[in-house]
Structure formats: C-alpha cells, structure tokens
Amino acid sequence: MFKLGDRVVYPMHGAGIIEAIEEKEVLGEKQEYYVIRLPLGDMRVMVPIRNAITVGVREVVSEEDLDRALAVLQEEETEMPSNWNQRYRANLEKIRSGDIMTVAEVMRNLIRRDQEKGLSTGERKMLDTAKQIFVSELILIKDMEEESAMRLIDGLTGS
C-alpha cells in the first residue's frame, strides 16, 4: 500500500505524487482512492486502492534504473514488425506495461523510425504518449523542469 507523498507511476498516464487518499461512493459502493497529481498538465487521477497493483501502479524507479533507461535511448533500435498494425499493437502493449525500460525502447524505436521513414499519425501520437510517460518519471526522479527533460531526451536520441 502506498502512502501520502509517495512518487508513483500510473501506466499510460505517467508519474505523479499521491496527494490524497479519499473515500468516494460510486454506484452505491464506497471505496478508497489514491489521488495522484501528475506534474505534466497538472492533471489529477483517482485510482481505487484495491485495484492499484492490478492496473500497474508502481513506485518510480531508482536513479540508477532511470540512468539505464536513458542509456537505452542511445542504443541501436530493435527489430520491429514491418506491418504497421502489428508494430502498433506490440508498442502499445509495451507502453501499457508501465516498465520504464520498455517505454524507453518504444520511444527510441519510434524516434529512429521517424528520422528514417516518418511516422503515421497513430504512431506519432504513440511516441508523444511514450515521451510524456517517460518525461514525467524523469522530472520526478531528477527534479527537473519539463523543458530540460525534453532537451535531455532530444539530445540523447538526436531528435
């Protein structure tokens, strides 16, 4: 169980800080929720406590793990399916995992593909989502501003 002030990642949304634990009644059922403030866009999400682990809420990674994920951005791209639909589904599954290493891999591969061949609208949106998730965790771990985090990523990926 997480507590107030914990820094957590909510897959597909990004990293944030638990700013409250509230009880709400939804459809006649009372439940406790984590209220997570996400630094990008100053968004707040509510996650039922009993479902938090099931949906993949996790603590932010250590600084060492983050540094390993940043190194992934500089590695050669991994083989991706040539079929757009298969590639999209594989990348979406990786992003949904919430694992920072696989999110970094998706970002790197999509950035490289964009540099070589360009991206479809769907893949460009996916790249933006992956970047948002990655940057939100980078901001919390390294105590950076969003602009600085984006510049760091762009510098590492040559984009």
Structural commentary:
- The chain is α+β, with helices and mostly antiparallel strands.
- It has 2 domains: 7-59, Thrombin, subunit H (Beta Barrel); 63-157, Up-down Bundle (Methane Monooxygenase Hydroxylase, Chain G, domain 1), CATH 1.20.58.
- 47% of the residues lie in helices and 22% in strands.
- It is built from 5 helices and 5 strands; from the N terminus they run βββββααααα.
- The radius of gyration is 17 Å and the shape is globular.
- The N and C termini lie far apart (39 Å).
CATH architecture assignment name of the largest domain: Up-down Bundle
Number of continuous helical runs: 5
- Sheet with the most strands: spatial strand order: 4-3-2-1-5
Strand/helix succession? EEEEEHHHHH
Mean pLDDT: 92
In the predicted model, the low-confidence regions spanning at least 5 consecutive residues are none
Question: Percent of residues in helical segments?
Answer: 40-55%
> What structural category do the secondary elements indicate?
alpha+beta
Tell me the total number of β-strands.
Answer: 5
Radius of gyration: 17 Å
**Integer count of domains:** 2
- Inertia-based shape: globular
